[in-house]
Amino acid sequence: MKRIIVFLTTLFGLATAGFGQTADTATTTSLWDDPMLTFYIVVGFIFVVVVLVLLVALYMLQVLNFMVKQATRERSERLGITYQEEPSFWSKLWDKSNDFVPMEKEKDILLDHNYDGIRELDNHLPPWWTGLFYVTIVFALAYLGFYHLSDTLPLPIKEYENELAVAEEQARKMKASNPVAAIDETNVTIVTDALALADGKTTFLTNCASCHRKDGGGDIGPNLTDEYWKHGGSVQEIFKVVRHGVQGTNMIAWEGFISPEKMQNVSSYILTMKGSNPENPKKPEGEIYTPKPETTSDTTKVQASL
Ligand code: HEC
Asked: Can you give the pTM of this predicted structure?
């Protein structure tokens, strides 16, 4: 797709502004960093030249044709013969690909049987149709061979899987190069530095306080300062609730509204409110949460299997 865009832009540039100017105006887009750019420009240039040459040739042919006809007409007039124009290439092609039975000969192909006055005209299939039919047979055989028998080309499901693999690889690279964007409930940690917690507090006050109260004491949403949790009180579990929300409740999924880093900060901030005993707290909901000795569930699993 990117290549096609470069190719078309190049063509457009050639047609309107010329090389120098397009290169100037386009320095902002990353398309122009493409190392193949010179190649596209050359190919685009050749393409334009070829099209122009073809147009000129077509025009010359037209003129020549006209002159030949003119000369023939004049000569036949001199010889006293009535000039009859030859059918054009297109009308010949039309006749050939349809191969109609002339109207006068239709009675020859009329079949004998007669259904209450309706009779059958045994016209043959037009050659363009049979031709197409044979092409589909050849195509089907080639398709069968390439896709199903020899596995040279990937079937749609395989193609889909390949693209998924490419996307996964890209996602992995992106995560590796940008760890902050890659925070999720499997690798979220409790952050302790003041700046991050202050950021978490701001997020909490702007987005969450309306339901959980400024002090976290709970209102529409549960009390976040006590030991009772509906969905677990580990940072992973809190992050998960914040990220995906709780379906069917007022707790929406915040993913997409708040960056993963901010979700980590606000989850950590919530944990700092534990035991702050705000006034008039909402009564406990859920179960008492006792932290497991290991912080990440992954290590617990590994230990369990040892
Ligand atoms: C529109 C109201 C509303 C807003 C805004 C809201 N919440 Fe909630 N929240 C709820 C409700 C309701 C629940 C309880 C869901 C349930 O019943 O499981 C909840 C549950 C939670 C829980 C799980 C509590 C538990 O007991 O397991 C956490 C953590 C939480 N919210 C954090 C947040 C954070 C962080 C924000 C801001 C980014 C936020 N909420 C914004 C309504 C809200």
From this structure: 0.51
